[in-house]
Amino acid sequence: MYRVAALDIGGTKMLGGIISEDGEILYSEEIATCAQLGRDAVIKNMLHILKQLLDNVPDVKAIGVGTTGRVNVNEGTIYHATDMMPGWTGVDVAGIIKKNFGLPVAVENDVNAMAIGEGWLGASKDYNTYLCLALGTGVGGAYVENRHILHGRHWGGAELGHVLLHAGGRQCLCGLKGCIEQYISGTALYKRYNELSGENIKSAKDVMERLQSSDKFAKIVIDEFTTDLAYSILSLNNAFDPEFFVIGGGLIGSMKLWWEDFMEKLSAYQPNFKVLPAKLGNKATMLGAARLALNLII
Ligand SMILES: [Zn+2]
């Protein structure tokens, strides 16, 4: 049975694994990305974790990478990355890995890889056309039509976090005002909480903890969040008309606190709407990258 190495490069950490042809994770490692130290540090860490993986499991045939940023998948290079990964724009990820390990390499955007992972082994296994939203530090998106990722002309297809939700609203890092990302990301939740309460909490997890102790500001924040998420999904449905939606990313970890409320709001507009939480958790991107690596050799 074939086996490949796969790596998920996020702004905070890298998760790598050796994956078998049937999707079993045979071995895995995690290290800090150290994004703020710049591109050389990130490349060094990327090569270090890959070497660890390849040293521990023999007979690996290809390498797949899912990375933050827009990716030119034909060349395996970073077309554009935000300040979350300073200096990452322009890095020839595939070239660097090939030069060091001599194996075929596939590179894809991390949310696109997540969508591929969920389609291979997770929530969207039985569907060909679906839309993924990843609710984390920001909001990422991926659209899969007949099992093909929509990349767009500048590798920014389905950048759903920057679709406008409240035009003229909150300032976004992309320059627009009122993007989806400013309302339904983890960052948006704790910022909104601080705005209402005058406190200075630093994570969506803190908002969720306060929600569990019936904090009135946390209740308002999550009520707004589920409404905005429902509106986002309804708008995106009009744009893409997928068979169904997958919602993943860090916020899905606290779904028991908000999913029912969100589904109720969604159903009020459109009953029997097909939307499911991602199944593979934080391994979805790595597994999607593994699938892409397997596609190179099988
Ligand atoms: Zn934006």
From TrEMBL:
<comment type="similarity">
    <text>Belongs to the ROK (NagC/XylR) family.</text>
</comment>
<dbReference type="Pfam" id="PF00480">
    <property type="entry name" value="ROK"/>
</dbReference>
<dbReference type="InterPro" id="IPR043129">
    <property type="entry name" value="ATPase_NBD"/>
</dbReference>
<keyword id="KW-0418">Kinase</keyword>
<protein>
    <submittedName>
        <fullName>Glucokinase</fullName>
    </submittedName>
</protein>
<keyword id="KW-0808">Transferase</keyword>
<dbReference type="GO" id="GO:0016301">
    <property type="term" value="F:kinase activity"/>
</dbReference>
<dbReference type="InterPro" id="IPR000600">
    <property type="entry name" value="ROK"/>
</dbReference>
